[in-house]
Amino acid sequence: MKRLFLSLCLTLAALNTFAGDSIDNRIPLVLDGPITYTDPEPGYSRAPIRVPSVSLEDHTLYFWDSCAFTVYIKEEDENGDEQIVYTTYVPADETYIILPSELCGTYLIEVVRGEQSFIGEIEL
User: Fold this and answer.
1) How much is the average pLDDT of 42-56?
2) Is-contact 90 70, C-beta < 8 A?
3) Of 4, 32, 35, 31, which is closest to residue 117 (Cα–Cα)?
4) Looking at the domain assignment, is residue 16 inside a domain?
């Protein structure tokens, strides 16, 4: 019984080590928000809003929440006006998307979930 328990512990430790190696290169994105487009309907609770967990590795965005998102990548011109350079819809069962390799530099990222929008900065 002790051997089985020890083997199980070692296996879990090894799996944790391998999983940790793949996450080390990912940079968590800080998203501000939410900006809510509509007021909550009467009778619905006002639960705290969770900011989506998003991280970046190279040109791949990883999502840790199982919700559907619309992602906008925007650039700002010298007048401060924003222009959308890339947009995509991420279904609830997807955990990552690969951004086009042509995108290089600093961009704004907007993650829209339902009626809420979260905004941050992304370096590609």
Assistant:
1) 73
2) yes
3) 35
4) no
Q: 3-class secondary structure for the chain?
A: CHHHHHHHHHHHHHHHHHHHHHHCCCEECCEEEEEECCCCCCCCCCCCCCCCCEEEECCEEEECCCCCEEEEEEEECCCCCEEEEEEEEECCCCCEEECCCCCCCEEEEEEEECCEEEEEEEEC
State how many domains the chain has.
1
The phi, psi pair for 34, rounded to 5°, reads -90, 155
> What CATH code is carried by the domain that includes residue 65?
2.60.40.3080
Structural domain of residue 94, as residue ranges?
Answer: 26-37+51-123
pLDDT single digits (tens) 78-119: 888 899 999 999 998 898 999 999 999 999 999 988 888 899
**Burial label, 52 (beta-carbon count in 10 A; 0-12, 13-18, 19+):** buried
63 and 54 Cβ atoms separated by less than 8 Å? yes
* Contact yes or no for 35/117 (Cβ under 8 A): yes
Confidence (pLDDT) at 52: 82
